[in-house]
Amino acid sequence: IKKLSTIGLALGVERTRTELIPFLTDTIYDEDEVLLALAEQLGTFTQLVGGETHVHVLLV
């Protein structure tokens, strides 16, 4: 979880938006501690998903 921005950077904007975010949503949605760590990391993901135009994918 702590290295999500590194993974997002390596994947690029499109793959972060279409693959990484859905994967994270599907696999770790039920764990409270994981969700807290994930929320902290996703706060820095605006540029990694393509900027403000696509930031909505982080809120789904």
UniProtKB/TrEMBL annotation:
<protein>
    <submittedName>
        <fullName>Uncharacterized protein</fullName>
    </submittedName>
</protein>
<keyword id="KW-0677">Repeat</keyword>
<dbReference type="InterPro" id="IPR051023">
    <property type="entry name" value="PP2A_Regulatory_Subunit_A"/>
</dbReference>
<dbReference type="InterPro" id="IPR011989">
    <property type="entry name" value="ARM-like"/>
</dbReference>
<dbReference type="GO" id="GO:0000159">
    <property type="term" value="C:protein phosphatase type 2A complex"/>
</dbReference>
<dbReference type="GO" id="GO:0005634">
    <property type="term" value="C:nucleus"/>
</dbReference>
<dbReference type="GO" id="GO:0019888">
    <property type="term" value="F:protein phosphatase regulator activity"/>
</dbReference>
<dbReference type="GO" id="GO:0005829">
    <property type="term" value="C:cytosol"/>
</dbReference>
